[in-house]
Amino acid sequence: MRVYADENVWLPVVEGLRRRGWDVTTVYDEGTVRDSDREHLERATRNGWLVLTFDDDFLSLVAADENAERAGIVYVGQYGKEVGELVRRVDAALRRNRDRDLVGEIVYA
């Protein structure tokens, strides 16, 4: 599963996930940093990627379009957490769901 990290995900978290073997691309890697949340979600959906975000705006976006087919989302609130904890939480969420089709789902890490 390829994970698409939006601009709110700290790069050290991305690097930590990559060190744990996850295939993570970022908005910086893809040259899409100025795109809207909707455009990020649409890109991930087209490519079959899972969106990783710290941005709760994605949750509102999904709630407004609850019947639309879309990429799965892994959401984690970063406030009060250190990089290591965030990496562990996301890694654990990805491992728990490794064998599941997460299309259209929100996973809270």
TrEMBL record:
Domain DUF5615 residue range list: 1-96
A Pfam family it matches: DUF5615
InterPro entries reported in the protein's UniProt record: DUF5615
Protein name, entry field: DUF5615 family PIN-like protein
